[in-house]
Amino acid sequence: MPDADVLVIGAGAAGIAAARALVAAGRSVLVLEARDRVGGRAWTIDTPEGAFDAGASWLHSGRTNPLTPLARGLGVTLADHDALGDEITFVGPRRASPAEVAARDAAQAGFYAHVKAAGPGPRGVPIPTGPWGPTIAAWAGDLISAAPLAAIDLHDFTANALDPPNLLPEGGFGHLVARLGGGLPIRLSCPVTALDWSGPGVVAQTAAGPVTAKHAIVTLPTPLLLDFAFSPPLPVPQQAAAEALPLGLLTKVLLPAAGADRLDVVPFSVVDRQIAPGETLVTFLLWPFGQPHALGFVGGPVAWALADQPPSATIALMRAEIAARFGARGESAFDWGRAIVTDWGRDPWSRGAYSHARPGQAAARGVLGTPLDAARRVILAGEACHPTLAGTVGGAWESGLRAAAMITG
């Protein structure tokens, strides 16, 4: 007898969603998770200054996000970030004038209108030009997509444009996902080293011995899929799709407040600046939920380069950016010695933040989510499989539900 009807590899959002759906359908399930915690790339760290979402932070497209009703059903407060705080943009050492802000907004609207009007055919995302072009490109690419625009397929970019509202769960997104996994049969610190699907079912190899099941749902990020020991090997279409969907990198830094100075900035405010070609855009979210900390963000190639250096290099970048905008007052507002830098690029169970499609590879997401065989013994799931919510917890969740539905009928 198999150990379970369905084996789920990975206890992130996709794995939890799949397991919940399978249990509800009366199937026996076993979830194997390599980490010593659930949630995957949704991870909340509790600090003296409040909850720090080291991974996913927002419920994007909040009106249709499948996690919105689940969060509210658990009594979690969802803050509409788009309606809170200020967006503070600096031009050099000063705040942008109303005319400069209007020019930026018009340039940004023009960029997205141009992208959406593009016709069919494989291509990368066009790079915006003009005085605000580098800033818009860095926001849309390095920060939102975790990769430069030139590396991203145009049609995948437009298909995965995120609609408002963007909702922040109070208490941490990682804690929300962990609560949704409560009561499921999950084995932590149990990495799967190989999956044999050559027979009528599947056999997973773990340090504790083999685990057998009729089906397996594999929720590994694409870099891990490419190195995972499938037997028979991952079919060529899914192999090519995983290669076409690499993970970008977004690094987040928790900046604890050093005292009572809040820099005359209201909670939930976003602080950015106009950059010139070749400069790095670093952005900040100040005082979320009124908590005494700020969050710093840097993404794309600069984040990858910093991942190869000690955390102090990233902290130094954040400190310089704060000083450029708020001067010595800004530097003294934070306790730099207690800053926390995320490390998703070197995390062995993720090796990046979230996926993007290479130019010309928009169809790869659908291919990746196709069962490996007609018997649906092995199905891949995760944010990289979702055609319109890629890179989000909501997308991972829906892909897990879809994988479970392929098994239950």
Descriptive tags:
single chain; 409 residues; alpha/beta; FAD/NAD(P)-binding domain; Polyamine Oxidase, Chain A, domain 2; 2 domains; eight-stranded mixed sheet; seven-stranded mixed sheet; 12 helices; globular
Structural description of this entry:
The chain is 31% helix and 21% strand. It is an alpha/beta fold. The chain folds into two domains: 180 residues, 3-Layer(bba) Sandwich (FAD/NAD(P)-binding domain); 185 residues, Alpha-Beta Complex (Polyamine Oxidase, Chain A, domain 2), CATH 3.90.660.10. The strands form four sheets. Strands 1, 2, 9, 10, 11, 12, 13 and 19 form an eight-stranded mixed sheet that branches. Strands 7-6-15-16-17-14-18 form a seven-stranded mixed sheet. α1 runs parallel beside α12. The mean pLDDT is 97.
